[in-house]
Amino acid sequence: MHIKLSILISIIICLIYIVSDVVAMPIGAPDLSKCQPSLAANCCLINSRSIVDFKLPSTGALRVRPAAHLVTKEYILKYANATRLMRSLPLNHPWNFMQQANVHCAYCEGIYNLSNFPNMTLEVHSSWLFIPFHRMYLYFHEKILGKLIGDESFALPFWNWDSPEGMGIPTMYTDPNSSLFDNTRAQNHQPPNILNYGSTNEGNNNISSQIEANLEVMYRQMVSSAKTAELLLGGPYRAGGDEPWSPGTVEMAPHPYVHMWTGIDMSSFVTAGWDPIFYSHHSNVDRMWEVWKTLLGNNSTGVNYINDTDWLDSSFLFWDENLQLVRIKIRDVLDTTKLGYVYQQVPIPWSNKTAAKLRDGEEMSSLRLVELPVVLDSAVKINVELPKMKMKMNMEEVLVVDGIEFDARMHVGFDVFVGGLRTSKIGFAGRFEHLAVKKWRKDVAMGGLLMKKRLVLGLKDLVKELKLERGELLVVTLMPSHGTGMLIKVGSVRVDLSS
Ligand code: C2O
């Protein structure tokens, strides 16, 4: 009886899997005829009678995207001129600067529903769509800028915020008379001020400790917590799928923090594209994927991209440099050299372990130990068991912080630290951060908007560094990163094994 019942249950589970697989599919390009404008901006995309499929450009010389703080005066003039030309086009021209900026808004505030799954809204943040979508967006923007100045070799700069020399706002953006200026930038964050996105470094204004803390965040987010493409890029978002939003480590830090720090326009996805610095911020985010694949050696391990057709075939629409509306798929943008560009090689000061030190856990030892779920109104500790057995050699421990719930209109975030019962040391494991959705669609904003996300961080290196053993109890500290009193709830924390 028992055996029969368990066979029956297995069959049912199999069927559920098969059915859900049939339903879930790649994200379909938006149906541009059905736009629901945001409260903040009318950012509907310009429609066209014909849509063509994207073709890779014929290979010529590669465009080299330079570090923004290293460019020449001539380059700045050229870039500013291209942006100025973009700003002076008629407002309803697809290349007009505001039309370009609106593309970002159109893909992120529930402006469109999926063409192949009308019950779901299209959102390109908080999942595996994040990196490839922004790569496409920048690709077309760059090609159009080049077209406007008749220079096919034109390449966008990248804001090298992962390097000490690049951690401030690049000077090309600070001239109030330039087309690259935005007057909503934070006054107190102008050069020579630099970013301070390091965890537990808040209120510390010593430049060298700021840099050190920043590099530690870079190392954890890009190296030790991101050993697989899915950890780096984020979890699935499929048409008809029901997986929770699960942003990757490259999206979580310092990406949202840089948005917030820069200024008002940059702080909201609706308006971020209005500030020209957005494109060099995202050029560096894009570069992170490239650095991860090549310089950090994730190319040879077979985990350099996600081998899932729902990801590879997800498609998006953009106006291109030939004034055509183009449908492009994620599989088209896996290789930057096929798209015709590379990044200037600059030092990567955070690529090895010396960038991240374990710290003394003493100061956190008095925090309250809680059971989950918990409202994260102050820092808390949770005990979590490290799995006893590894099924396969190459499996690695991943920390899953699940059921993170908050009002999407709030800016919320927390840092995760890991320690053990037998060690007084703790290590920074990664960060969760959500940029406030400022002006959501009317129908959604009325009732508030409860958002639920999941954070997944690779733990393999930290387990080794802390000399933790299988079956041992971990002490996981969750520390709100923007003061207390945030309405953010954490449902559960566990360690999984995954390959
Ligand atoms: Cu689409 Cu950095 O945002």
UniProtKB/TrEMBL annotation:
<keyword id="KW-0560">Oxidoreductase</keyword>
<protein>
    <submittedName>
        <fullName>Catechol oxidase protein</fullName>
        <ecNumber>1.10.3.1</ecNumber>
    </submittedName>
</protein>
